[in-house]
Write a structure and sequence with these properties.
The complex is a heterodimer of chains A (567) and B (87).
Chain A (H helix, E strand, L loop, with lengths): L5 E7 L4 H8 L5 E5 L5 H6 L7 E5 L2 H4 L1 H7 L6 H18 L5 E5 L21 H18 L3 E4 L1 H8 L6 H7 L5 H18 L6 E4 L10 H4 L11 H18 L3 E7 L2 H10 L10 E7 L3 H11 L7 E4 L3 H10 L15 H8 L9 H4 L1 H17 L3 H8 L1 E7 L5 H10 L12 H9 L3 E10 L2 E13 L4 E9 L8 H15 L4 E5 L7 H8 L5 E3 L2 E4 L10 E5 L15
Parallel strand pairs in A: 1-2, 1-3, 3-4, 4-5, 6-7, 6-9, 7-8, 10-17, 13-14
Antiparallel strand pairs in A: 10-11, 11-12, 12-13, 14-16, 15-16
Chain B lengths: L6 H17 L20 H15 L5 H6 L3 H10 L5
Helix pairs in contact in B: 1-2, 1-4
Classes of the chains: A alpha/beta (567), B mainly alpha (87).
Chain lengths: 567, 87
């Protein structure tokens, strides 16, 4: 087994082994194993060493014997049933203290239970109602723990699109889930594993004709495209657009790559009243007759993203094949012929799943659109210095705290290019690291006259006994590179070093497949001295860049910064 | 299905492919005379996946009785033949 593999452990009180191959399918660097059958409590209470993600499947009547009585229509005590569920939620929370991520599936009525009919939700004794309350206990436990999440069984049941239980497999070997259900569960688990590992896709590039609307705009004209209205085909495209809009509101970027005349296509987007998506919803587009793979590369470069962030959706199998061949990093899902099936196809991808949402996520499209205006400003400005001054960059330095932790962890885990060591930390372990003696994590929020970028820089610092301030993590989001934040961060490290009485600052570059951009900076004028992959500065030789206004709040808060060593 | 492949050969090939997917082994590792117990990965747990994949491949739904009774590639092919898959 690959020692660097991401290790997923499936824990269940039924036979869950058949799920392992579905979770592992097509996923590189993942190793899936299965805990001993029906050993849920001992497994969760055990040491769980080496597990990155534990996924827990339980049957409600096995968690709560009292609920078992309810399902058998025997007299039962609902308070006791709920206490049993609460106790299990607590056990999950404790397990989450030992594993980077624990995911628990919500409870649904077991397949053998008789239908309660209207009694299920009728009054406090209704079993459906008790299960809803039990699931709420699960959600509350997850809310109190940074690394416990709840996965929704009902969502998987809906996605399966077929009976989720297979009574035959249960009778033969205590397997609960049917094959379509296993596929749906595997999709959710892979989505979570990708989200935790910072592999969430960020950009959807869309074809137009027969993808975003029905018909060919260049032939039919924008008035006759099938979109919305009382037309069932048009209605299907409208639903698909609503989904895309929702993803955009959640921080996923949308772009267009289409073989069309640009003016014709844009006119359709602007003038067709049933368009759910407007021009402002797209961060960029390439609408021309060139090769789509070349267009994708160009557009992705313009947006400062990597190809591994991209999903390409096109109804034309030949275009999909071309992009798949040319750009294997781009996710090109098979796409259904029937537009009514588009929403389910998009849902099944799970590649946009995130564990938590930050304010930056919600405002991402706006930020990228500001970025376009900034680049236009650069084009109209004479020198680079002039442009930098005109930007009026403001940097706010803050220590890591509860409020900025989710975004800081997200930045650390998602950033590949300007990242010194590409160290990955779940939020909880980043907080632990920062809380250790002689450690500090500083976060950097940036704004300029075009708007706010949010939290886009992070420094992980450590004071060594020999009087060196070591920069352990140095991360900058690529969308603010080259605006002086890098130098401002070095200056912030300089003041931390002076405060801690350190005579020098050292950063060690750990090469990865993608982090050359930080090396380019380190090798540039900012580096004082280089020794192998070590870069050294004197704390007094790190002046903040003149065009950047820095407000340093890292000194105001007690108990976080590295200078505490001396206090 | 290649032009020279008979319907029965095609059925046999698809059964072997389904088993190779279910047990996560190479197709070559699933001989036409493979059987439960004799073939290492095809234990009782593996059999559940074999049933699942055969059903999915042929769009069939087997009864408990049928699923339990299948012991070999030949058994599966015979059952599918009865249901008109090798014709």
């Amino acid at each position: 087994m690959d020692p660097a593999a991401y290790r997923i452990l499936l824990i269940a009180d039924s036979t869950i082994d058949p799920l392992a191959r579905f979770v592992g399918r097509g996923e590189s660097g993942v190793a899936v194993s299965v805990a001993p059958y029906d050993q849920v409590v001992p497994t969760l209470a055990g040491d769980l060493a080496g597990v990155d993600l534990a996924v827990v499947f339980t049957q409600p009547d096995r968690v709560s014997a009292e609920l078992g009585r309810a399902l058998a229509c025997e007299p039962f005590d609902r308070d006791r049933a709920l206490a049993e569920f609460a106790g299990f939620a607590d056990l999950l929370r404790q397990a989450a203290g030992k594993v980077p991520m624990v995911a628990a599936y919500t409870w649904t009525p077991p397949h053998w239970a008789v239908s309660p009919g209207p009694l299920g939700w009728g009054g406090p004794q209704g079993v459906q109602r008790i299960l809803a309350e039990a699931n709420l206990k699960l959600a509350e436990a997850a809310e109190r723990s940074r690394n416990l999440v709840v996965l929704d069984s009902a969502e998987a049941i809906a996605a399966a699109g077929a009976p989720p239980f297979d009574p035959k497999l249960w009778a033969m070997g205590k397997v609960i889930h049917s094959r379509p259900m296993l596929e749906a569960l595997a999709g959710q688990i892979r989505g979570l594993a990708d989200a935790v590992r910072g592999r969430t896709r960020k950009l959807i590039l869309l074809d137009l004709d027969d993808t975003l609307w029905g018909g060919i705009v260049g032939e039919d004209g924008w008035q006759d495209l099938r979109l919305g209205g009382i037309d069932p085909i048009g209605e299907s495209y409208a639903i698909f657009q609503r989904q895309l809009k929702a993803l955009r509101n959640r921080g996923v970027l949308l772009g267009i790559v289409s073989k069309n005349d640009e003016a014709t296509a844009m006119e359709a987007i602007r003038r067709r009243p049933e368009m759910v998506l407007g021009v402002e919803d797209f961060v960029g587009w390439r609408i021309n007759w060139r090769d789509k793979a070349a267009n994708i590369v160009e557009l992705v470069e313009e947006l400062n993203l990597g190809l591994q962030s991209v999903v390409f959706i096109d109804d034309n199998p030949a275009e999909r094949d071309r992009v798949r061949q040319a750009l294997p990093e781009v996710l090109v899902p098979d796409w259904p012929m029937d537009p009514a099936a588009y929403p389910a196809a998009l849902k099944a991808l799970h590649c946009f799943d995130v564990v938590r949402l930050s304010d930056e996520d919600r405002g991402r499209t706006a930020m990228y659109r500001q970025e376009r205006r900034r680049s236009e400003a650069l084009a109209t400005c004479g020198s680079r210095e002039q442009w930098l001054r005109s930007l009026q960059v403001r940097v706010r330095v803050r220590p890591l705290d509860e409020g900025n932790l989710p975004r800081a962890a997200q930045l650390l885990n998602k950033t590949n290019q300007f990242n010194l060591a590409a160290r990955r930390h779940a939020a909880a372990s980043l907080a632990d690291w920062a809380g250790q003696r002689d450690h500090a994590v500083l976060t950097f929020d940036v704004a300029d006259r075009f708007g706010e970028y949010g939290l886009v820089g992070l420094l992980g610092l450590c004071v060594q006994p020999d009087g060196t301030l070591r920069i352990v993590d140095w991360v900058v989001s690529c969308r603010v590179l080259g605006r002086g934040l890098e130098e401002a961060m070095l200056a912030a490290a300089g003041s931390q070093a002076r405060r801690a009485g350190c005579g020098r600052i050292v950063a060690t570059y750990l090469p990865t497949a993608k982090n050359r951009p930080i090396l380019a900076f380190l090798e540039g004028p900012a580096a004082a001295r280089r020794c192998g992959d070590d870069f050294q500065w004197s704390p007094d030789a790190c002046p903040p860049p003149v065009h950047v206004a820095i407000s340093d709040e890292s000194e105001e808060q007690e108990g976080r910064h590295v200078a505490d060593r001396n206090s | 299905m290649s032009p020279t492949e008979t319907a029965e050969q095609a059925c046999l090939r698809r059964v072997r492919e389904a088993i190779s997917r279910a047990l996560q082994v190479d197709l070559q590792a699933v001989p036409a005379d493979a059987a439960q117990g004799v073939f290492e990965q095809w234990d009782s747990l593996g059999h559940l996946s074999v049933v699942m994949e055969v059903e999915a491949e042929f769009g069939e739904s087997l009864s408990v009785d049928e699923a339990v009774g299948l012991r070999s590639v030949a058994d599966i092919v015979n059952l599918l033949k009865q249901r008109g898959h090798a014709a």
